[in-house]
UniProtKB/TrEMBL annotation:
Protein name: Twin arginine-targeting protein translocase, TatA/E family
NCBIfam families, alphabetized: PRK14861.1 (NF011430)
A Gene Ontology biological process term: protein transport
Keywords assigned: Membrane, Protein transport, Translocation, Transmembrane, Transmembrane helix, Transport
Species this chain originates from: Abiotrophia defectiva ATCC 49176
Membrane spanning residue stretches: 7-24
């Protein structure tokens, strides 16, 4: 998360404006939803993998 701290508010504003120009205001909510679903899926997978590792260590 160090990268997000380095960007700052002006950088985030530029990123949002760039996304608006590239994708348009109508597609931006769809894009945000897909990115959110991707992060949730990634987080779930990481938790499953760490739970499996902990279970294997406990069994040994």
């Amino acid at each position: 998360m160090g990268l997000l701290r380095d960007i700052g508010a002006p950088g985030l504003i530029l990123i949002v404006l760039g996304a608006l120009l590239i994708f348009g205001p109508k597609r931006l909510p769809e894009l945000g939803e897909s990115i959110g679903k991707m992060f949730v899926s990634f987080k779930r997978t990481v938790h499953e993998l760490t739970d499996d590792d902990k279970k294997q260590e406990k069994d040994q």
